[in-house]
Amino acid sequence: MAHRTLRLSISPQEVPDVRRVIDFDGRSTLAGVHAQIAAVYGLDASQLHAFFTSGRYWDKQTAYMDPRAEGRATDRTLLFRLNLSVGQSVAYLLNFAKEQQFVVTVVAITDVAQPLTAPLLVEIVGAAPELTALSEAASNLDAEAPEADPPELAELVQLAEAFLNAEDELDALEEEPEAGAAQMAPLRRAGGEAALALLSAVAGDSKLFFKLDDWLLERSLSVRLLDLPLQLANASEFELGIAAARALVFVDRELVQGDLAIVLAKAGRSEEALAQLASNLDQAEDAALVEAKAGETHRALGDLPAAEAYFRRSLTEAKTNADRLQALIRVASCLIDQGREAEAGELLKQARQLETQSQQPAKPTEVGRNDPCPCGSGKKYKKCHG
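^ that's the sequence the OP posted. Answer follows.
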């Protein structure tokens, strides 16, 4: 399974030459991005914050707000669901009274085999305005004394850590060449059971869950939980995988219900898998995602022509280059399974070309000095990024 990583460059609106570049896992929340921006710039993360994906501050149509404010909450918004593209700028606002403004630019979007376990600061350029010893503060983030768990999260943190510790042990075992399935099976089962205990305690309370996820940001709780149903199915822990998927629907409905259909198919429960698949298609909002999951479901059922058809529909529905790349790879893989290597080769050639294009920076457009700045600030170009 591929995991998406987004490289974001964050600059103060008034000082565009200063920047901090951070890699985020695609399933990081916008609240997590806020926390990292505050950390690397030495800001007060307790202040209200907001993101505007149009790049225009206070644009209500594209606003994602601090959970304490009205609107789409940043702690429930995952990066990969925003369909961001390379070169796109997002406006970030901290402190609604003083309005500390930043420009967040998508530098790169890549698909990797393993998820990024924590945000990674990859570049520091320029001294932050009105802040001192920034580099020292950023390098010492991990050395600070750990805060006590909030009282309302204390029990949940213990349950979450039981799951995360099992996952850490599994990750360590996978690095050992001699480790076999027999060694990993008990840990995988223990992790699944710990996850179910945690999800039972959360009881579908999304606000509480995302607060916990934000508190445990560096351990990527939501990312690892969302990966769990398919991991359990691949380890033949089908009942645990089905139970985990059903308990996770409130976190990301379309993604998890798509995985539920796949797990049911892998478990040999074809009628239930097809019924779940039909329901998913009827309720689809992210067509590219739902069609791709339908293809994986039919693949697990052994119906390769149907899988190919859904994968091709996912390719048609793809809105970003990253989604198109993954869709091309799925179709090509399905063709190889059917012995159609020549056709697969052509699609993989397209995929390589698309990947090369995605890695190239967008060409700048000509902007007059008196034109509005493309960053969306509302200022003239000559007084902003000119």
